[in-house]
Each structure stands twice: as structure tokens, then as C-alpha cells.
Amino acid sequence: MPRSDLEFANLIGSRICHDLISPIGAINNGLELLSMSGTASGPEMDLIGDSVGSASARIRFFRIAFGASGEQMVGSGEISSILRDLYLDSRASATWGISEPQRRSDVRLAFLALMCLETGMPYGGNVLAERDGEKWVIRGTADKLIIDPDIWALLATQDPKLKLKPAHVQFGLLPAIASDNGLQITSKATETEIVISF
């Protein structure tokens, strides 16, 4: 039995992603078979294919960000593939600037940090994930940022009085999971850059 609400949330995230990835993969396989047989083509099929690809990328990303994490390693190729597919045809981009495999628990924190940065970059921009020795640095740059100071303050304070919207759940999870791992989240912002470190 999990010991905390956070562990329950992790298991729920893993279960949902696990159960959704199979039917989405089956739809994608069906589209490939239709394409090879020549029985279906056109903008409608392209739209379905793009949508299935987007859903698959999001589930792969969410599986790490919101699912149960262990100490198994995740290769840079897999992470870069997830990020490439996630931001395909988007105004934003993300670069995984780390060549060595990383612990899944660390990648999870980096993905949650990336989601926080996305919130401050609604018009697009670029995100770079790096390591500086033992320290992780997730940096977002954009021409225009929108920073809600109350939400961003959660990364340092974990203020339980602030009611989060579903779109901001990462601001509650990131500091809670970091704290469980003995880490402290720090963030800073300028007019064109946001940096999250842990």
C-alpha cells in the first residue's frame, strides 16, 4: 500500500498512461496499414495521423512526468525522441543537452520543470535542459514571458493555501517530489528568460 497521497497520484498516472498507450499505438498501426494498402489517403488521414502522433508523444511524456519513477536509467536518445515528437509543429522547442543516461526520477523532475516553463512561455520559445555538475538547470527563453508570481512562488514555498488549477498541477508536484528526494527548487526570471534549478 502506498505511504502517501503523492505515491497514489504516481500510481494513478502510471496506470492511466499504461492503459492509453496501447490503443493509441493500435490506431497508429491501423493507419500505417491503411496507408500501405492504398485504401485511404488525403487530408483527413493526415489529420488523424498527426493527432495520434501528438497523443502518443504526450502520453510518453506524461508517463515520466506523472507516473511512478524508479532508479532505472533513461537514455538521451529516448528523451530527445519524446521531446522532438512532443513539440512537433509547435511554437516551442526543447533540447535535451545531456548525453549520458539519467535516472528516471531526475528526468521526471526535469519534465515537470519544463512544464512549468511552458506556462510562462505561452507564445512559444526554447527550452534547454542541462547538468552543471550535480545540479540540473532547465532554462527557457522567449521574446515574451507571462509570469504569475503567486504560482511561481509555490516552487519555493509550497503554500497549501493557493488552490491550483489542473493546468498548474506541475507547480505543486515539482517542489513536493524534489523535497522527497532531498532537493530544493530555485527559480529566477528576467524579461526573456526563466531558469529552474534543483
User: How many E strands?
Assistant: 7
pLDDT averaged over residues:
87
- How many separate domains make up the residues? 2
- Order of strands, widest sheet: 2-4-5-7-6
Q: What gross morphology would you assign?
A: globular
- Output the number of helix runs: 6
N-C termini distance: 29 Å
Overall SS class:
alpha+beta
> pLDDT below 50 for ≥5 consecutive residues: which ranges?
none
Task: Please give the CATH architecture of the largest domain.
Answer: 2-Layer Sandwich
Specify the helix fraction band.
Answer: 40-55%
The major beta sheet can be summarized as:
5 strands, mixed
Explain what the structure shows.
- By secondary structure, the protein is of the alpha+beta class.
- The chain has 2 domains: 68 residues; 112 residues, Heat Shock Protein 90 (2-Layer Sandwich), CATH 3.30.565.
- Helix content is 54%, strand content 17%.
- The protein is built from 6 helices and 7 strands; from the N terminus they run H-H-E-H-E-E-H-E-E-H-H-E-E.
- The strands form 2 sheets. Strands 2-4-5-7-6 form a 5-stranded mixed sheet. A two-stranded antiparallel ribbon has the order 1-3.
- The protein is globular and about 55 Å long.
- The mean pLDDT is 87.
Indicate the topology.
Elements: H1 5-37, H2 43-66, E1 73-74, H3 76-86, E2 92-96, E3 102-103, H4 104-120, E4 125-132, E5 135-141, H5 149-157, H6 169-180, E6 186-189, E7 193-197
Parallel strand pairs: 2-4
Antiparallel strand pairs: 1-3, 4-5, 5-7, 6-7
Helix pairs in contact: 1-2, 2-3, 2-4, 4-6, 5-6
